[in-house]
Hints:
The chain is an all-beta fold. Helix content is 0%, strand content 45%. It contains no helices and 11 strands. It has strands at residues 4-7, 10-13, 18-24, 34-39, 46-51, 58-60, 68-73, 78-83, 92-98, 115-116, 120-125.
Amino acid sequence: QVYLVESGGGLVQAGGSLTLSCVASGRTFSSHAMGWFRQAPGKEREFVGAITGSGKVTYYANSMKGRFTISRDNAKNTAYMQMNSLKPEDTAVYYCAARAFPHFANYLNQYEYDYWGQGTQVTVSS
């Protein structure tokens, strides 16, 4: 079992930045590919980005490319997502998720992830 705890959400003005963190329990963090998803009110959960266990490969949803950067520090059991140029439409609850393997078959598929955090709210005001 892997427990994930997100932090770093909050209220920010449009154009601002936030960095989300996701701390994982356990001693084999590098064995877990990580993903970030978000869910806005009344909408389905959507893929934001992902990173392999080694941190060498990242993936992003098209609307986040160039604005969001995912990284990880395996020594600290922590994944990060730096979000820049935030827009009101980025307002959502953001979740980190871990896969039981270091690589993906389909990083877009939320059912590929085995463990989920509780989420952190990001609100972007206009």
